[in-house]
Write a structure and sequence with these properties.
With about 140 residues, this protein is mainly α. Helices cover about 80% and strands about 0% of the residues. The protein starts with a helix and ends in an 11-residue tail after the last helix. The longest helix is centred in the middle third of the chain and has 76 residues, at about 35-110.
């Protein structure tokens, strides 16, 4: 039990003890002049109905707030799980695919190079970024 529930329970027990003491000490007594017991019972039942309606509205508000919190938490956990899985797959698949592709492209570049000593320097300074052959600088 949380501290808030313990406080509410203590207040309810205290009110019950005070009400029991008052009824035992003074009794219920007769109905006020002009009233019948059926009128008093009707008033108590109407008050109980109003309290139950207020409790229902309060519980509905708590339900909506709880649903919203659960939904937001579920979205956050799903995003985290998807991100973790994507990172794991990326760590496994990218080296498997990228390293052979980089080697293939490097081999193609070196095969097309001239055998002169300045061929590597000219290939590195060429600056071709795409298939158009245009300098990207």
């Amino acid at each position: 039990m949380s501290w808030f529930n313990r406080i509410l329970t203590a207040i309810n027990i205290a009110l019950l003890v005070v009400a029991a003491y008052a009824i035992a000490r003074y009794g219920l007594g007769p109905a006020p002049p002009g009233w019948k017991w059926s009128d008093l019972v009707l008033i108590v039942l109407v008050a109980l109905s109003v309290i139950l309606a207020a409790l229902t509205i309060f519980l509905a508000i708590l339900g909506v707030a709880g649903y919203t919190r659960i939904r937001d938490e579920a979205i956050q956990r799903a995003e985290n799980a998807a991100r973790d899985k994507a990172e794991a797959v990326t760590r496994q698949e990218v080296p498997r695919i990228a390293i052979p592709e980089a080697r293939r492209q490097a081999a193609g570049i070196f095969e097309s190079m001239e055998p002169s000593p300045d061929a590597l320097t000219s290939a590195l300074t060429r600056g071709d970024d795409d298939d158009t052959g245009e300098d990207s600088r």
